[in-house]
Structure formats: C-alpha cells, structure tokens
Specification:
Length: 420
Amino acid sequence: MHVMVLGAGLSGVTTAWYLQQAGFRVSLIDRQPEAARETSFANGGQISISHPEPWANPGAPRQILRWLGRDDAPLKFRPTRDPAQWLWGARFLLECLPARAHRNTRAAAALATWSGRQLRELRARLGLEYDQLERGILHLFYSAEEFAQAPARARMLAGFGIEARVCGRDECLAIEPALGAGSATLAGGLYAPRDESGDACRFTQALAAHVAAQGAALYWDTEILRLLTSGSGGDVAGVEVRATDGETRILRADAYVVCLGSHGPRLLAGLGERLPIYPVKGYSITAPVRDPARAPSVSLTDESRRIVCSRLGSRLRIAGTAELNGFDTRIRPERIAGILEWARSRFPGAIDIDRAEHWAGLRPATPGNVPLIGRGRHAKLWLNTGHGTLGWTLACGSAAALAELMCGRRPPVDFPFLGA
C-alpha cells in the first residue's frame, strides 16, 4: 500500500518513518527544500512529558485578562477580521472548563508518556544524534504563590505515572548551578528527571535521511495546491502540486496523511473538512554559548514567564510567548526583547547575545491542545496534526499510533483517536 505524507516537519517525517516500519510504501511532500524548515525549525527543544497541561485551563481566562495590553505578555491576542480566530478563541474558553481541561491533560499525558518510550527506542535503534541531553526538565517558580501550587501539580503528574518532585531553591541550584547568578527571586521548582531536550530540526533531518535510505520518494520544493476527489463518496484521489519551475502535476497514492501544521485546515476546507486548528505564533532565540559554566545544561521552564531554555551543544535555545495573529510570521522586536531580557537577567554573560539568531514560527494548536490523530471524514484521508506546544514531545508517539491505526489496530494508549 502506497501512502503519501503531506508535510515534512516533525509530524510528517516521523509519520513517514513509522509507516515504513509497518510495511507501507511512502512518499513525502514539502514546499521547502528540506525537512523541518518551518514550525519544527527552532522550537524550544524540550521533550516535556511533565507538562501535559494545556494553555486552556481554569486559570487561563484570569491570566489572559491580566496580560492584556502588555507587549511581553506570555499569551497575546491580536484581533483580526478572520472568523476562524474568534471561533477558535470561543472554543479555547470552552476548553478551560475544569472537566474538559482535566480530560485534555489526561489524554496528553498518556500520549506523551508513550511517545517518550518510542523516542528512546528509535534513538537507540538508529543512533540518532541531535544535541540531545537526558538531564530532565526543571520547572521554575519565581513567586511564592505559584510555587505553592507545585505539590498539587506533582501529585497530579504522579497520578499519570510521570515522575516529578518539588524542589526548594537550594535543590534547584544543586540541580542546575548556572541558576545562581540570576536566582535572587527564585522560590522553588518542580524537577522531572525523565524529561529530555534536543534539537528538533536536527532530529527531523537525520530521520528524513533514514526515510530516504529506506526507499521513500521525497518531493522537495513542491507546493501542495489541493486534494482531488472522485466517486460519489468524495474519496481522496490525488494531490495537485506545483514544482519550482511552475509546472503542476497530479500525484496519486492509496492513502494520504495530512501533517501540514497550521496550513492543514486551509487545504481540507475545500473538501468540507473543518479542523479546529489555529496558528499560534511562538518566538525563539538561538545563541552561541560564551561561558559554558554560566549556561544551563538542564532544560528549564520559567513557569512565571512561560519561557523555556535548552542547551543544544554549543548553543542555547530560549523560546516562549504565544501570539494569536493569523498567519503572520513577522518577528516583532518587542516580543523578542522579552526573551533577550530574560537571558541577560537569568544567565548574565552565558551567551553571545549579539550573535543570537531570532526566529518565529506557527504552532498548529487545537483549542484544548490535543492533536488530531486518525481517520479523516473522507475515505483514504488520515490526519496527524494540531500538536500545538507539544509537537516535539508527542511526535514519535503520534506517528507510531497513526501507523497502528492504519494497520487496523488500536494503539495501546488512552487517547481519543479519530475514527478508532
């Protein structure tokens, strides 16, 4: 059976790999010249199994109101005339209800735990190198009020089988000594020793090389224009694409998997398939490490500022913020400024800020941050998309689960797979 995977980011390449291992013949299409050039290019670098809670939670509406008007707000809403933005926002508020937030957290935690195992097995099998570190993630709290919630969060994670322990300020400094210079207001932390970090782009490109070596047909610099249908049931019958020379052609397969991130809803709208996905822009900087002793090697999450930090070899990646502004990928200086200020204050002298690379990308987010994995509404159509802030964390598990579903088997995960 021939499967065509649309999109070659983390989701698409991992999907292609696991489908190959299940015995499918695979083609992979992307408009970029290589894998992981868009959303997966410069994310925060965390495989954060210990952070399954979605942005949509009971406390979110109050926080968002408090952040209104701030240029450095962790979540910033820029109103547009796009009805999709307002509809997504209304659904986001609905997902903040306690029962829905708990359901979404439970689903993400189950898939994240399984995905972590899949990643470790894949890395061992292929010997992949992507500046990975298995030193855990330390969640930091800079106010006593926020730190007071850490024990309840640790108990909640334990209920999902996720290891995390509450740490006082001194233990946080023992786990990551580089925190010392900027830790005057640190209240405490929550340490998840089984979490990891690594360069998602390097991982994806390395895995894409293995996908190619196993015989996949790779269509780079190929823009996907539309899906074609046939028959009374509207079965997907092909993909119309355009190469860089402007020539259009039709590519056909026995099944099609949409892994196009924020752009998936636009493609599927022509089929009448509505995906509850909206682009949520995130920012990052990647800077050379100037003083290794001052730069952290344990991945960090500043829970007060919603900023994450990961050591990637001789570089430090610092990422954060969420911005709802349609498909705008412009890098706004005022948003980057907050990340730069965080780096200067937390780790003075650690990195060469003048040589930092600035980046912004669109996270494909569902209102509850639970991805869409499984059958589409049209025959031959499958989905693996909508991972939001957890794309790196859930990548291997989502792809492995989709391969199981396409083989007619139920994955061993308590998750709301589509059509299962």
